[in-house]
Amino acid sequence: MSFETERMTLRAFKPGDSDLLRNLYNDPEIQSLAFTDYVAPKLEKWIKEMASSHENFPGFLGLVEDKESRAFVGHVSLITTGTRKRGCSFSIALRREWWGKGIGTEITRWLVNHAFRKLAVHRVTLNVLASNNRALAMYKRVGFVEEGRERRYNWDDGKWLDLILMTILEEEWDIRRGV
Question: Which residues cross the membrane (predicted)?
Answer without folding.
Answer: none
